[in-house]
């Protein structure tokens, strides 16, 4: 029965009711434009044939709108629910979609050849792309759809709008605070590229870094080291494959095992910083007396832990990205969101 219903078309209903296709369409979509008896005849014919009604996607296509925003996510789908900042960003997207009558379609990508096909087939009006690398093929796939696109965090792409904070300036301010009295600074980093290899690098060459947010924050940390007279070539950078407290604890264990006795640690997120704090306290050292510490995002957990952090709103950035993608009618050079440094006890009292 289901298969037969799928084969029934509006044209078949119109023929059975003895009306034009347009009249049959009006019977469903604009009933006031047809006589009540005519509409009843169309509906009776549809019921007899097992017609379920017009496909709404066809109407949306004729109107030039699908009423859906696509989020291109270069992560597993579970990342949206596991990473607090990703969750806040998607919540910002959802708020704008809901208030404007749009659906939100999440399109996870894997780096495989199907990514382009998945994007091309997405029934969406516009795209928001979660931060990725400049050589990611999904960017070409999004461009080929000729739909509006916003990138969060980077990379900057001609014709796409970029949303995010000035990560380099924010990282410079954070490290200046964390390392103000430090003689042995260290960094906890996001992944360098899409391979996501964890490990410790000393004096990391920034030309190796493909992710723009990671690159800009490392550049800001390096700027701060220069400002403070610290030698960047001696600074250990512990790379985590995921933004997760457990990965941060493992990175601190690896740092210490390699003999890096740091006294100031700048992390790229509060998740990392709080995981690092746990690993540091286990060694018997205290914060900030033995190690100063800071992170990014100024999360509620950071406030409870008295952690110095860069305040930014991923919720607001998500809302801005959705607004630009759904309403913005031209090219833009970019949108820089606000940030500020929240100084707390983790960097004071030395």
Account of the 3D structure:
Residues 1-5 and 329-333 have low confidence and may be disordered. The chain is elongated. Helix 7 packs parallel to helix 15 (314-327) and helix 10 packs across helix 11. It has three domains: 2-50, 434 Repressor (Amino-terminal Domain) (Orthogonal Bundle), CATH 1.10.260.40; 64-164, Rossmann fold (3-Layer(aba) Sandwich); 167-311, Response regulator (Rossmann fold, 3-Layer(aba) Sandwich). Helix content is 44%, strand content 16%. The strands form two sheets. It has a seven-stranded mixed sheet with strand order 7-8-6-9-10-11-13, with helices on both faces. The protein is of the alpha/beta class and 350 residues long.
At a glance:
By secondary structure, this protein is an alpha/beta fold.
CATH topology of the largest domain: Rossmann fold
Radius of gyration: 26 Å
User: Helix count?
Assistant: 15
CATH level 1 name of the largest domain:
Alpha Beta
Spatial strand sequence of the major β-sheet: 7-8-6-9-10-11-13
């Amino acid at each position: 029965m289901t298969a037969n219903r799928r084969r029934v078309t509006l044209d078949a209903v119109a023929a059975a009711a003895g009306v034009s296709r347009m009249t049959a369409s009006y019977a469903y979509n604009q009933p006031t434009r047809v006589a009540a008896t005519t509409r009843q005849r169309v509906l009776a014919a549809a019921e007899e044939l097992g017609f379920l009604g017009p496909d709404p996607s066809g109407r949306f296509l004729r109107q030039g709108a699908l009423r859906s925003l696509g989020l291109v996510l270069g992560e597993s789908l579970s990342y949206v629910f596991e990473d607090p900042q990703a969750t806040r960003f998607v919540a910002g997207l959802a708020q704008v979609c809901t208030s404007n009558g749009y659906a939100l379609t999440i399109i996870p990508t894997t780096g495989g050849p199907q990514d382009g096909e998945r994007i091309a087939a997405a029934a969406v009006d516009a795209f928001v792309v979660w931060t990725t690398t400049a050589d990611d093929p999904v960017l070409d796939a999004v461009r080929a759809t000729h739909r509006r696109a916003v990138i969060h965090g980077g990379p900057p792409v001609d014709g796409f709008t970029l949303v995010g904070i000035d990560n380099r300036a924010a990282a410079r301010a954070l490290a200046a605070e964390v390392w103000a009295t430090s003689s042995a600074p260290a960094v906890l980093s996001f992944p360098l590229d899409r391979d996501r290899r964890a490990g410790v690098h000393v004096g990391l060459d920034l030309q190796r870094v493909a992710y723009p947010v990671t690159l800009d924050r490392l550049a800001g940390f390096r700027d701060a080291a220069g400002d403070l007279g610290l030698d960047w070539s001696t600074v250990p950078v512990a790379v985590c494959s995921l933004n997760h407290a457990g990965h941060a604890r493992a990175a601190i264990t690896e740092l210490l095992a390699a003999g890096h006795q740091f006294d100031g640690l700048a992390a790229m997120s509060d998740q990392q910083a709080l995981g690092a704090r746990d690993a540091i306290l286990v060694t018997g050292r205290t914060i900030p007396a033995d190690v100063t510490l800071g992170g990014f995002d100024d999360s509620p957990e950071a406030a409870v832990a008295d952690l110095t952090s860069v305040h930014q709103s991923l919720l607001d950035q998500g809302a801005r990205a959705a607004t630009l993608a759904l309403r913005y009618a031209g090219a833009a050079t970019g949108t820089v969101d606000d940030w500020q440094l929240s100084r707390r006890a983790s960097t004071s009292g030395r």
